[in-house]
Amino acid sequence: MEVTNRVEPGTNVVIVKNLYVSIDPYQVNRMKSFSSSQSATKNAVGVNPGEGIDAHGVGKVVASGNTEFEKGDLIVGLISWGDYTVVKPGVLLRKFDPLGLPLSYQVGILGFSGLTAYAGLFDICKPKKGEKVFVSAASGSVGNLVGQYAKLFGCYVVGSAGNNEKVALLKEKLGFDDAFNYKEETDLKATLKRYFPDGIDIYFDNVGAEMLDAAVANMKAFGRVAACGVISEYTDVRKRAAPNMLDVVYKRIKIEGFLVVDYMNVYQDFLRTTCDHLRNGEIQALEDISNGVESIPSAFAGLFCGDNIGKKIVQIAQE
To answer: Boundaries of each Enoyl reductase (ER) domain copy (predicted)?
Structure first.
């Protein structure tokens, strides 16, 4: 992309050199010829062949016709999967202070992944100290943070992941009480009964399908489920959750879907709390960073093969 270093004052156009872009599973639903998610929210509108793909990311202003931004400003917001972004009026964009932390954190732990984990756990599930929490896709961008927040809060936490390396990481680095490789289990309901003999209070669901069924079967009365993602359905529509609705009704289980954009009101609390945890060494930022715009396709495809550990990010350029 050829980029000019000048834009006309008053146009409100900002030209951004992209530094880091977020790679997220939900984007696959935007690329489908049809997905019900596309009409549910403007944040998941479809992308047609030949169109640019926007994503949360970090960049540096190289030219600005908007008085709110100057050349050299670091920004975070909706940028594109590419080298540069021409940001037009009305697009989510803001300047930020790195706070002495890596710029990549703005895309992951201090960005939408972190806020999703924080809001989903504390606003949707409302944990109490000592409660039993189960997290699926627990080594992913959101799941690893849910587990860490829950442990810091005083909960008992078990996570599931797709290989033994990830299981070891959850227990040895991130402080989960226990974890298991779901690919080695033939009966998920029995597995969860083994790890939660007295039942699950909170299930943070990132996968849907049979894992949700198994979790509901093992929930305590008044259990809460945060329905954050359904990655098992994104690439296989035959996988649909069918939880026992008698359990849902008679155990009075709450299952609530949510989108991070609905919880921007807690962003400042989330940011302050998470920065304190990072500086005190109480929480780990788990990042999986690829380099160069040419690595975006393989980075994206790898999400659906379980290649990533933590937040998948592509570094487009140096600051």
So the answer is: 2-314
pLDDT tens digits, one per residue of 52-99 = 899 999 999 999 999 999 999 999 999 999 999 999 888 889 999 998
- Does residue 125 form part of some domain? yes
Provide the residue count of the chain: 319
Q: Which residue has the tokens 């939880």?
A: 243
* 173 domain residue, yes or no: yes
Q: What pTM value is reported for the model? A: 0.94
Low-confidence ranges of the chain (pLDDT < 50): 1-2
Total domains in the fold of the chain: 2
Same domain (yes/no): 73, 61: yes
Sequence-distant (6+) residues with CB within 8 A of 282 are 152, 276
Looking at residue 175, which CATH number applies to its domain?
A: 3.40.50.720
Are 69 and 179 found together in one domain?
A: no
Q: In which residue are the tokens 């600005």 written? A: 64
Going from the C-alpha of 21 to that of each of 77, 80, 161, 261, the distances in angstroms are 10, 8, 24, 18
Q: Which amino acid is at 26?
A: Y
Query: Which H or E run includes 223?
Result: strand 219-227
In a domain? residue 135: yes
Q: Which domain covers residue 257, as residue numbers?
A: 112-261
